[in-house]
Amino acid sequence: MQRNLLRNWSLFLGAAVLTLPLTSWAQLTHFDIDSRMNAESHIGNITGHAKDAKGDYRRYCVVCHGELGDGNGESFPWVDPKPRNFQLGVFKCRSTPTGTLPTDEDLFDTIARGLDRSNMPQWSTFTKQQRADLVAWVKHFSPRWTNEKPGAPITIPPEPEVTPERIKAGREVYARVQCWKCHGVLGQADGPSAATLTDDLGRPIAPYNFHEGARPKCGDTDKDIYRIFMTGLDGTPMPSFADNIKPDEAWDLVFYLRTLMSQKSKEKAMARQLGLKPVDPNAPAGQQ
Amino acid sequence: MRQYSYAVVLSTVVLLCCGALLLNQNVSAAGEGKITGTVKLDGAAPHMKGIDMSKDPYCSKAHASDPGHLETYVVGASGGLANVVLYLDGYSGNPVASTAVPVFDQKNCMYVPHVLALDTTQTFKVVTSDQTAHNIHPLPNPMVNVGWNQSQPPGAPPVEKSWKNPEMIPVQCNIHPWMHGWFVVVKGPYATTDDSGNYTINNVAPGSYTVTAWQEAAGTQTQKVTVAAGGAASANFTFKAK
User: Fold this and answer.
1) How far is A87 from chain B (nearest CA, A)?
2) Looking at beta carbons, which residues of chain B come within 8 Å of A243?
3) Looking at chain B from residue 38 to 67, which residues have their Cβ under 8 Å from any Cβ of chain A?
4) Which neighbouring-strand residues pair with B221?
5) From CA A14, how far away is CA A33, in angstroms rounded?
């Protein structure tokens, strides 16, 4: 009887805690977070269990992401970009549309890949099972995974052959949707709006510099680059262009972006042969 | 057995018809009243800082004869305060959102309107009238509503969205950092003050309510009113600039 009473009390308390965030940016408590300890992840035929990741999280992750997954670990003051707040369920690297939760695979890949130009290293030394468990652990911090389903991954058509025409068409897209406003006409992160960009929490943030040779944040395959501008990097100023770039044009843009990167590529060689000039922000629409 | 299922179908149809009739009556506002009033700002209108749009020639050209300025307080001739949202605190009736789809425009590198009030789940449309690229980036509390960030280059198709839960959601354009507006999501009937500070909340069922007036910088004020069947209650507010 007494145990029953206790359980009822804890249910009541749980409900109270869950309604708290609706009225303010209140922090989630241990109590609420622990209630989702049975969270799971599914990657291929591997099932990750949150409770199995507790040890790894405390050993490798907690120093930045914090005990409560709020990104407020001991190292918080010293790292920039700031560690992700898992309680909000907002992630940059997704295969899903802007405003939706990422898939388990997205988080699984991010852990192994790490995030370039941040303090998040590559955790490729973990076994797949460990990573799957950590994905479940990351999910258990946010109530969003209880209330929402991950978005449906965007459809990416097969990659076409690179041609000079496609590179030129990609340059038109770069001009039309005005990537240069932030990334600059040469992709050197010096567009007119670059200096004033802030992330969702109002902290200064720099656009990606294609010229610098750094790996793109969410992977460096052509498909990864395609995904970045068609899903947007949630939590940052980088929007989704899914409504304004057609799938075929998106490949053209990927090829053009390759010409802005410092790494050698066949796209870069073609651009040199074409004598491609940077886009002209003052040119009338469609007349690059 | 077959007769039984006919009976079920028939009664469902009858029920649906009755429901539709009832619903229809609600919409046609039999006996519903309204709340009207004026919202004013006490004292002189605060100075609104000018905006330097020189980084985007399109924007500065659009404002060549009418320099842009912040819209934190928009005060009319006789002290009327615009962009104040009025709604019924703790409203528990049916949603009253009409089928109208409010439009949030990006025009001359400003948001028109600066404040867009919405009922929960009411669909709204974000459009652009500009020949420069914007990104429309609402910043809700992720624990309350789900945010998103979409580009709108010149000629972009409208973005259609809605919000699930009541919240005052700031919206910004990262490309033009001065562009700042609000989606004010409330439950039930609402109104936004016009340039003279006047408002009318329509479709209010008879009863006692707490009217809340929200201004983005000055905060909120409340007043208790009673709406009689088919009548009009009045609630005037005066804010002090903060």
Assistant:
1) 8
2) 150-151, 156-157, 159
3) 55-57
4) B213
5) 10
Q: Where are the beta strands (DSSP E) in A11-148?
A: 40-43, 46-49
- Look at residue B52 and give its three-state secondary structure: coil
Band of pLDDT at residue B41, cut at 50, 70 and 90:
very high
Cα(A96)–Cα(A202) distance, integer angstroms: 24
- As a whole number of angstroms, the longest Cα–Cα distance in chain A is 83
- Cβ–Cβ gap A232/B149 under 8 Å: yes
ipTM of the modeled complex: 0.86
**A66 shares contact with chain B (CB less than 8 Å):** no
The string of pLDDT tens digits covering residues A82-123 is 999 999 999 999 999 999 999 999 999 999 999 999 999 999
Residue A241 contacts B where some CB pair is shorter than 8 Å: yes
B103-153 pLDDT per residue, tens = 999 999 999 999 999 999 899 999 999 999 999 999 999 999 999 999 999
The single-letter code of the amino acid at A160 is P
Disruptive mutation site among B174, B176, B178, B179 for chain A (greatest number of A CBs within 10 Å): B174
The set of residues, in sequence order, having a beta carbon less than 8 Å from that of B160 and lying 6+ positions away, is B101, B123, B124, B125, B126
- The distance of B138 to chain A (nearest Cα, Å) reads 9
